[in-house]
Amino acid sequence: MRRARYTDEELLALSGIQHFCFCRRQWALIHVERQWEENLRTVEGHLVHKRVDDPYFTESRGDVVISRAFPLASYTLGLYGVADVVEYIRSENGLSLPGHEGLWTMRPVEYKRGKPKIDERDEVQLCAQAMCLEEMFNVHIDRGDFYYNEIRRRVPLLLSAELRDKVRLLSEEMHVLFRKGVTPPAEVSKKCNLCSLQNVCMPKLTKKNLSVRRYVRKHVKEACIEDV
Predict the structure, then answer these.
(1) pTM of the prediction?
(2) What are the structural domains, with CATH classification, of the chain?
């Protein structure tokens, strides 16, 4: 049994690890400063998840039992959240399932808008979900699946040791920044154009490390010069 490192009060939102992997500043604006803006991508994401987020719904399809909106928690990672879908697959090894004969293995399935990303932001989120399930049920999960709405098919993910190590490192860094209440400075890149918080973040401004007072002073000075 893994030793607990965090208390209930210290748990952070598991969904934040995706934001953190994409951009530390975006994560801090959402989870430390509690700022959020909706855009087309976030609205589409909510609609995709609405189709699967029914915590009272389960169904059986032959050798697969499906549970939706499955609550998750890990006291070693310090994360809590919800898995879109957890599938129980009949197997020679695994755990018993109330109301069903035999043994079953667990597999988390995450629904996403769009298509697979070029970075690991989706992968660390799904891996964190699997690690929560492993801790909760004392099982081993070797893979999970994505369902991408744009391409309308599943994409499997092998849960490697390297990916698990990255999840641990990211979660530790999240807790350090959260305890300190730190919002990292902006790192301007092409991905800023994909961010729903671009107007809140103002990456080009914050990258220059200008304080609000200096920013206002600078523009007042420029306006006075124009009036002369």
Answers:
(1) 0.79
(2) 8-183 (3.90.320.10), 185-228 (no CATH)
